User: Which sequence fits this backbone?
DNA sequence: GCCGCAAAAAGTGCATGCAGTTTTCCGTTT
DNA sequence: AAACGGAAAACTGCATGCACTTTTTGCGGC
């Protein structure tokens, strides 16, 4: 394989996989913004591969919903209108609620210990106002929640939804009071889970997303609000 | 486009789209069964196209979860172990519950009228024991439910889940009493929706899937039980 | 007979080329 | 100056070819 020179960076898997990672990386980090055109030739040149793996990557990203493809025209980073954005938030809230509910019932002792420890540790980040670190913690927290539901398929669905919201949730936590609020909401979820109180955990998680969603609604035009998923 | 001869059948869209439809058709209808290898060359020959569009189609089907791909080896129709199957059923139940709940709140007058009319009409199919026709009705019924939730993203998720279950729900409704049971459960859902009773509708839809799931559990080894989704 | 193992066969991964389509650019007309 | 039209440029869609990997095959050793 790899006839010409190789762009070893990100070394792992096939060229197509690298392209999928690379391109979705550009999208998720915001280097490419919704609506931007994805020209196969340019991408191929940029990563020093032929158009073939780029095409396959775009096809896959299309199936995942990150980009939109139409016959004979360039792929485009998916845009979402307000309606669709709302529908994704609503779906996210439902899914998070389900995960929290199931997690409250199914998490192992280790998992409970782990999510609690992580949550406690994040308190320090709040006080220090370490936004970036808190964002990283936040990602881990929610991932733990999704895994805690012990349902492979739901994990896939929620992860996928999360990925599609990713382009829209850059640069947050900068809103005043956001961190503290987030921590408190996490607290409610964790407490309920530790108590194995499924209903409360589910409602708290639903409300957690709903909070963000409400905030988002007030910033409709410039949808850059929601990191806290 | 299309340099050589053309396989016009299914005429529509690009060659890749045709391949996606064709291959997923083979999977959903059972011509290809879970675990079967999908050889690019053979498929290309069979449909008289080059390997390129076949590869892209397989890539897309992989992203959709219908087939599994690993580097340097043939794509394979996705198998699901018992765990994963259960997780998909559980997810389906949750999603159907959500859809029914939202549909009870959001369906337009026309939508309510339409789903009720369809349901009423299906009564005749029960009496006649028209299994195939009832299966078709059943698909429409559930689709109407999903659309009635008026949430684009949830529609995507549930449709996708449904597609992944498709290979496993061939040839059902043949179980004795299945049709009647299904009809009764639909009835409960419809009634609640017409009353705009969200909680009841949600529970009924959840239970509807749970019923099928239970039936499935008793047939673990040969997972050919669940048409009623 | 069966295990190992090397060579052949089959199959995937990617690059390249060309046909067809869309987009861009520019001169012409109104 | 804006609107139109058409040719050139840019780009997508697919076929084909070759390198590399996996699978199969066939044969000698045990």
Assistant:
């Amino acid at each position: 394989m790899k006839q010409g020179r190789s762009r070893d960076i990100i070394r792992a898997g096939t060229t197509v996989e690298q392209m999928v990672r690379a391109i979705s990386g550009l999208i998720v980090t915001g280097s490419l913004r919704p609506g931007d055109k994805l020209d196969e030739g340019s991408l191929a040149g940029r990563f020093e591969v032929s158009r073939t793996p780029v095409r396959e990557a775009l096809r896959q990203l299309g199936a995942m919903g990150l980009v939109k493809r139409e016959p004979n025209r360039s792929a485009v980073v998916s845009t979402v209108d307000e309606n669709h954005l709302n529908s994704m938030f609503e779906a996210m809230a439902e899914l998070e609620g389900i995960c929290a509910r199931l997690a409250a019932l199914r998490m192992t002792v280790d998992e409970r210990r782990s999510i609690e420890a992580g949550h406690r540790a994040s308190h320090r980040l709040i006080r220090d106002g370490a936004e970036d670190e808190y964002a990283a913690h936040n990602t881990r927290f929610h991932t733990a929640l999704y895994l805690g539901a012990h349902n492979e398929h739901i994990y896939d669905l929620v992860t996928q939804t999360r990925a599609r919201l990713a382009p829209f949730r850059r640069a947050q936590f900068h809103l005043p009071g956001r961190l503290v609020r987030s921590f408190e909401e996490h607290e409610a979820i964790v407490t309920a889970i530790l108590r194995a109180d499924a209903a409360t955990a589910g409602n708290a998680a639903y409300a957690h997303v709903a909070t963000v969603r409400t905030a988002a609604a007030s910033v409709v035009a410039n949808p850059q609000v929601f990191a806290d998923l």
In short: Residues 1-4, 14-16, 49-53, 56, 71-74 of chain A lie near DNA strand C (CB under 10 Å from a C1'). The domain at 82-227 of chain A is CATH 1.20.120.530 (Four Helix Bundle (Hemerythrin (Met), subunit A)). Chain A touches chain B at residues 13-14, 16-17, 52, 55-56, 59-60, 62-65, 71, 83-84, 87-88, 90-91, 94, 98, 151-154, 156-157, 160-161, 164 (CB under 8 Å).
